[in-house]
């Protein structure tokens, strides 16, 4: 569902009417089909591959980096049937009609879809993500301003240093070995958190 907001200067921007539901999904070993082989497809596929998904790319032209990380490249234009067996679908071509057809097949098959040029046609949006080991901070504006989501991510990246990766790893180990080990790390957590406020 899309809604309109009026920005200063009279600019109008269409955004999701209700806030999107945030979740973190286990995609390990799942088939995820990315239709399109350009810059936007690459960005979506990179994160899918990092999450252990089986990435299938369908496009007549595929960036080399994207072909490198895909499990399967179908080097031709999309056709109906390409979404068979997919857990998630990404319509990321530069052709409106193709993205609309992909969204339609996904809807028919009840596969959640992300539509790069018409978010309201799909089911979910991809957030901007800060990652430090197991710690992930996902930023969404619900499509209001992807550029703002990216700026907030960059701002947070300056504050969350590499020490957070180690800290989360140690907390995970401590948690496995019991309450006491976990509480011993509380001081370190407090120190890291207080540094964020500077
Ligand atoms: C966060 C990020 C994640 C990712 O993609 O990985 C992401 N877009 C990113 C970058 C980016 N997006 C755009 C530009 C070009 C410059 C500019 O306009 O700023 C750039 C910069 C670039 O490409 O370099 C333009 C754009 N984006 C959308 C439309 C269509 C529309 O709004 O109708 C158009 C107009 C296209 C056109 O008309 O040509 C739509 C979506 N983009 C989203 C996510 C979802 C909502 C996120 C949110 O707001 O919560 C949503 C709804 C759907 C989705 O794609 O999931 C990633 C930053 C990652 C990072 O750096 O951290
Ligand atoms: N959501 C976002 O984050 C975001 C950001 C920028 C742009 N966009 C939108 O995403 C679209 C794609 O952007 P891009 O920079 O990756 O474009 P691009 O021109 O780099 O790549 C387009 C890709 O689509 C493929 N393609 C064309 N026809 C196809 C078909 N019939 N079947 C399969 N693949 C086909 C091409 O082979 C190419 O690989 C843009 O048109 C723009 O509207 C979205």
Automatic annotation (TrEMBL):
It holds the Pfam family Sirohm_synth_M. Pathway: Porphyrin-containing compound metabolism; siroheme biosynthesis; sirohydrochlorin from precorrin-2: step 1/1. GO terms for molecular function: ferrochelatase activity; precorrin-2 dehydrogenase activity. Its EC number is 1.3.1.76. Keywords: NAD, Oxidoreductase, Porphyrin biosynthesis. Residues 132-158 form the Siroheme synthase central domain. The keyword Ligase does not apply. It catalyses: precorrin-2 + NAD(+) = sirohydrochlorin + NADH + 2 H(+). The keyword Ligase does not apply. One of its GO terms (biological process) is siroheme biosynthetic process. This is precorrin-2 dehydrogenase. It comes from Rubrobacter taiwanensis.
């Amino acid at each position: 569902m899309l809604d309109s907001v009026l920005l200063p200067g009279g600019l109008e921007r269409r955004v999701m009417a209700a806030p999107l539901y945030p979740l973190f999904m286990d995609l390990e070993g799942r088939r995820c089909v990315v239709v399109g082989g350009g810059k936007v497809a690459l960005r979506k596929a990179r994160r899918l591959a990092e999450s252990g998904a089986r990435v299938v790319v369908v496009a007549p032209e595929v960036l080399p980096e994207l072909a490198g990380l895909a499990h399967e490249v179908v080097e031709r234009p999309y056709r109906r049937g390409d979404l068979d067996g997919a857990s998630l679908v990404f319509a990321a071509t530069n052709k409106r009609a193709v993205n609309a057809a992909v969204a339609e097949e996904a809807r028919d098959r009840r596969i959640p879809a992300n539509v790069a040029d018409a978010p309201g046609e799909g089911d979910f949006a991809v957030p901007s993500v800060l990652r430090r080991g197991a710690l992930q901070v996902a930023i969404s504006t619900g499509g209001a301003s992807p550029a703002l989501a990216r700026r907030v991510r960059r701002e947070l990246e300056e504050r969350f240093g590499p020490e957070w990766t180690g800290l989360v790893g140690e907390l995970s180990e401590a948690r496995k070995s019991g309450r006491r080990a976990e509480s011993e790390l509380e001081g370190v957590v407090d120190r890291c958190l207080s540094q964020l406020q500077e």
